[in-house]
Design a protein that fits this description.
Blueprint lengths: L1 H23 L3 E6 L2 E3 L8 E4 L4 E4 L2 E4 L2 H4 L6 E8 L9 E8 L4 E8 L5 E11 L2 E6 L4 H9 L1 E3 L2
Antiparallel strand pairs: 1-2, 1-6, 3-4, 4-5, 5-11, 6-7, 7-8, 8-9, 9-10
Length: 156
């Protein structure tokens, strides 16, 4: 009898813990209204993405996308923006841009650290069938990494 109660209690605790884990890792949809990014907590304000100038500002950090990053936006595309700022281990709080070139079977995923604007990850996602994708990380060479870091500055 004690074993059955223990198993039931353990099942409830694990189910609750797992659902909290999933909730903590959910990306939040961020809206782009004009140049304002809507949906981030106040600690990351102001938050702006100006595509004509390829400028991203989150709080006290601002960057102009390097020429390399600008090439990801060259084709007509749809842009989706997500972010997560809590419970994202092993990732720090991040903002994620999904760039989907129109009428193509691939997209780009660009992930920035919300606190520093450093690039965490860049990848291309290939759609191999209607229900399957393949994510391929894009390795940035030292020159491109340096170029990206130089574009980040602290603003008031």
């Amino acid at each position: 009898m004690k074993t059955r109660r223990f198993q039931t209690l353990l099942g409830v605790v694990l189910s609750f813990g797992f659902s909290c884990f999933l909730h903590a890792h959910m990306d939040q949809i961020i809206e782009l209204k004009g140049t304002n990014l809507i949906g981030l907590p106040k600690e990351y304000a102001p938050a702006e993405l100006e595509m004509t100038a390829f400028r991203l500002r989150i709080g006290k950090h601002e960057m102009t996308f390097s020429p390399y990053l600008q090439t990801l936006f060259e084709q007509p595309h749809d842009l989706r923006i997500y972010a997560s700022w809590k419970g994202t281990l092993p990732l720090p709080p991040y903002i994620y841009l999904r760039i989907q070139p129109k009428e193509k079977d691939y997209s780009y995923e660009l992930v920035f650290n919300l606190a520093t604007l450093d690039v965490i990850e860049l990848s291309v996602v290939l759609k191999t069938s209607p229900s399957k994708t393949w994510t391929l990380p894009i390795a940035l060479n030292d020159r491109i990494k340096k170029e990206i870091r130089k574009s980040i500055r602290t603003v008031k």
